[in-house]
Amino acid sequence: xxxPPAVSRPSHRSSPHRNPLESFTIDTHPPAxxxxxxxxxxxxxxxxxxxxxxxxxALLLDDCHRALHQAEYRQPxxxxxxxxxxGRGKTWLMDSFHRSLRxxxxxxxxxxxxxxxxxRLFQLTGSADPLRLLAAELAGELRVLCFDELFVNDIGxxxxxxxxxxxxxxxxxxxxxxxxxxxxxLYADGFNRQRFQPAIAAIERHMQVACVDGGxxxxxxxxxxxxxxxxxxPGQASALGEVFARLNRGAPTASTPVQLEHRxxxxxxxGPAAVWCTYAELCEQPFSAFDFxxxxxxxxxxxxxxxxxxxxxxxxxxxARGTEDGIERVVAGDRQLPMLSVHDDGVRRFIALVxxxxxxxxxxxxxxxxxxxxxxxEGYLSFSFxxxxxxxxxxxxxxxx
Length: 401
Description:
Elements lengths: L34 H11 L6 H19 L8 E5 L6 H11 L4 E5 H14 L6 H12 L2 E5 L6 H16 L3 E6 L17 H10 E5 L17 E3 L7 H10 L9 E2 L4 E2 L3 E2 L4 E4 H5 L5 H10 L3 E6 L11 E7 L4 E7 L7 H17 L3 E5 L13 H13 L7
Parallel strand pairs: 1-4, 1-5, 2-3, 3-4, 6-14, 10-11, 11-14
Antiparallel strand pairs: 7-8, 9-10, 12-13
């Protein structure tokens, strides 16, 4: 029996066109079956094939679910950290767990959570130990935090996350998370990684770490096609012009810049239903994941044209000398910089854009110089791009969005 995609999104989540959970309000959706019951039901009624890695993860989530609903409110309970390759059903399992809860809980993409953290820290400027204040604020509203795609590659986030996670666990909050990396490998090549070790220790002490790898990418399950990727044809008009016109259906459009978080995006055109821009303007300018959140807040669809071949040979790593750690006021000494290829700065932003569109179920229409499978075949970000390729492939199916 064919299997439906194991990463389909639950119906209770926010509309992709709303501002994504700026505050931590409590969910009121009716409880669904427990994680194990939902998994067994999916096999019996929805055509899922048995997957032992998924079953073991469902058992761990079921234990956590049972403990949350049987224990006293602040009794320590072990959370769950699900990691594994792309498309193995980690998000589906976590969302099943989240839907089943009858205690205050919040499910967020990790990028959204970190945006909230940065904004609250700015508001708490001058406070003593603001990270503990944040943890206490969360504990006053929630019992469970669910993070999708926990991934750390920014030194600022790495420095915050260690003490914040420790404070969150001390407050008795239960954390359930998904990631493509085992906890021990988070921020593996990051500068001053020893400063992130407390976060890893906290995860391994307060969460059950489980690998979910059934051996196949369920996002590639066959389905009706919906073309959202084109290869540029020399001498022909861009395919995105017709797509943009169809999406906006005669509504007024403009070619003025679009204001995002703190920067303006030059657009080919934008209207109520879509924005059309080029890769150079969106991914080779200093935009952040927070800007992509703002872009998805505003537009129901995104068209990205003139995407070049993103592959490139890695350049020889350079040495940075005399770097000072501004918090501890110590000299960090020499460090090896990543062996990036010529396109990798832009590729990082492209990965963040695809992640945001995928999590929000916002269609991303692309026109590139090369076929999708050839888009990024060589470079420093090959591991991260596997998730991006898998997600772009699912975007070519009608079930997406």
